[in-house]
Write a structure and sequence with these properties.
Elements (H helix, E strand, L loop, with lengths): L2 H20 L6 H12 L3 H8 L5 H13 L4 H21 L6 H19 L9
Helix pairs in contact: 1-2, 2-3, 2-4, 5-6
């Protein structure tokens, strides 16, 4: 991939990570992993900039942990699955019908998030 494309990917996914840090139900760490991947291959300056964004501090620690160990802490898994299913319940509750396409899509996303969290190894070592 070219350097400008990697920088663009990093910036887009950093924006998505910031949105995820603000809005409940939107992931943060997954977007940060992609942003880190793109920036470490394209720009040391942007990697350092990303590491200095205060709202992303905790998610960045988890992203680094995932990069190093290819595993996620149990607490992070519980929060991810909880928010996924919480979003599905809220969407279903606000919907007029459980058969509306949006409700089905959100429910499928919750199932997918659950499966992914089951498949990713669990890191039982406490954070530093």
């Amino acid at each position: 991939m070219t350097r400008p494309l990697l920088i663009l990917i990093g910036l887009v996914f950093t924006g998505l990570a910031i949105i995820g840090a603000i809005l409940p139900g939107v992931p943060t760490t997954v977007f940060l992993i992609v942003a880190l991947w793109a920036f470490t291959r394209s720009s040391e300056r942007l990697t350092r900039w990303l590491e200095r964004i205060p709202i992303l501090k905790t998610a960045l620690q988890e992203a680094r942990r995932f990069e190093e160990r290819r595993a996620v802490r149990p607490e992070v898994k519980r929060v991810a699955v909880g928010f996924a299913w919480g979003s599905a319940v809220v969407t279903a509750g606000l919907s007029q019908s459980l058969t509306q396409p949006l409700v089905l899509i959100v429910a499928l996303a919750a199932v997918a998030a659950t499966v992914v969290m089951i498949l990713i190894p669990t890191d039982r070592e406490p954070p530093p």
